[in-house]
Specification:
single chain, alpha/beta, Nucleotidyltransferase, domain 5, 2 domains, six-stranded mixed beta sheet, five-stranded mixed beta sheet, 11 helices, iron, EC 2.3.1.234
Length: 342
């Protein structure tokens, strides 16, 4: 089976073609430079750029794969969650492409694609396992039992800022370039993680689940109150601030993963999303001897077409080869409470 995967949930126009078990095309039209002037993603700019990029990007993918559009057996595209305009561009193109060629198509939840692509990379990854999407828009902990959404149990999520959003806002406040995550990670390696004792959240469990997270307090502490958290004997240098921030941000995530792994007696863990590329997070997870960490290559951490093509194919077969209807819309937000939730 040959699958065309299209990802346009945010600011990356990504296309991949999966032929059997091999990717024969991988194309990403990045918009990072276009959004740097804004210090973050400008939704209107993103959607307009997707309109300009998508046809060319798909054409490049077919040329790279040495295939023709008629060779495609299935079209998979992201329809949730993401920026409304960006999602609409990808969904409209994908559905019209499939309809014109009389091919089936499937709409994909790109949060699940971030996690489930690990089963393409690691053939020994078995259900069930813990999956964490850590990105600029989401910080969500899931128990994954299969490919269908009914097989997914939401264990916890951020109550406010996503971890990647927190990284970007801290970076912007200190004059670093967008995207902020790689900049902070680079600087943190040069600093002392114990220089600052930034606070960990104390969530009211009447309103938050035991695996929920929070990053707004940490963000405000690093931006507005850092002096009161500096430990004696350390200077107020940028590298120390970033090291202290990164330690606190990752520590909360690791602690939550540890608790869920213990409670559910599951030691297989996958982390997807842009923050999965963070070197300190990857190092910490690999040092957890009681956990089996299935890391993703850096190219599959951010938004990409490969995860959409692979997950779309597996979802199609899990649905007994039932494609979706043209009436399927896009969903900028995914209500986590529609899933089974602890």
């Amino acid at each position: 089976m040959i699958v065309l995967g299209i990802e346009t949930s945010c600011d990356e126009c990504a296309v991949a073609i999966l032929d059997g078990d091999s990717f024969v095309a991988r194309i990403v039209a990045s918009q990072v430079k276009d959004h740097q002037v804004y210090g973050g993603v400008a939704p209107e700019v993103a959607s307009r750029l997707h309109i300009e990029q998508i046809s060319t990007t798909v054409d490049q993918a077919f040329k790279q794969a040495n295939l023709l559009p008629k060779d495609i057996d299935l079209v998979a595209y992201t329809n949730r969650p993401g920026l409304m305009g960006s999602l609409l561009v990808g969904a409209t193109f994908a559905k019209n492409f499939a309809w014109a060629l009389k091919k089936p198509f499937v709409a994909v939840n790109h949060l699940l694609a971030h996690i489930l692509v690990a089963r393409y990379v690691h053939k020994n990854l078995q259900f069930p396992f813990l999956g964490i999407v850590a990105s600029g828009g989401h910080t969500t902990l899931m128990l994954i039992r299969g490919y269908k959404e009914d097989d997914v149990q939401i264990l916890g999520a951020t109550m406010d800022d996503a971890i990647g959003e927190c990284y970007d806002k801290v970076a912007k406040a200190y004059g670093l370039n967008y995207p902020g995550g790689p900049e902070v990670d680079h600087l943190a390696k040069q600093g002392a993680s114990k220089a600052f004792n930034f606070p960990q959240p104390k969530l009211n469990r009447r309103f938050a689940g035991q695996y929920d997270l929070s990053y707004s307090g940490l963000k405000n502490a690093v931006i507005n109150q850092r002096h009161q958290f500096r430990r004696e004997g350390f200077d107020d240098s940028l590298v120390n601030i970033m090291a202290g921030f990164q330690y606190a941000a990752i520590e909360q995530l690791i602690r939550t993963i540890d608790r869920a792994a213990h409670d559910f007696k599951i030691n297989q863990v996958v982390i997807g999303g842009g923050v999965a590329a963070n070197s300190y997070l990857r190092q910490c997870m690999k040092e957890k001897s009681h956990l089996n960490f299935f890391d993703l290559p850096l190219s599959l951490c951010g938004d990409n077409g490969e995860m959409i093509a692979y997950y779309g194919k597996e979802l199609y077969f899990a649905q007994d080869k039932q494609g979706d209807s043209l009436t399927v819309g896009v969903m900028p937000r995914v209500n986590l409470f529609r899933y089974q939730r602890v």
